[in-house]
Automatic annotation (TrEMBL):
GO CC aspect terms: mitochondrial inner membrane
Top-rank lineage group of the source organism: Eukaryota
Protein name: Mitochondrial import inner membrane translocase subunit
Family to which the UniProt record says this protein belongs: Belongs to the small Tim family.
Length: 78
């Protein structure tokens, strides 16, 4: 538990962003690339780009939803 609390305190937005992109890159590569024995094809590059953009849009939608909910809660308290 102590190591988790240390991680939480030391975790910055930059680390969160880095972790998001590392996970997204790994997931998109696994989704789009069949074998790494060759240079990426244009189709594979397009797939990775589209996958990454989709995930970024999903995160933005979640952030927007959370922001809206927080704003509504604050306005209800006034």
């Amino acid at each position: 538990m102590n190591s988790f609390m240390k991680w939480m305190r030391g975790n910055t937005e930059e680390n969160d962003l880095r972790a998001f992109f590392e996970e997204t890159t790994k997931d998109c590569f696994n989704e789009c690339i069949r074998t790494v024995a060759h240079p990426l094809t244009p189709k594979e590059k397009h797939c990775i780009t589209a996958c990454t953009e989709k995930r970024v849009r999903q995160i933005q939608a979640i952030e927007n939803s959370l922001e809206k909910t927080i704003r509504e809660i604050k306005e209800a308290r006034v």
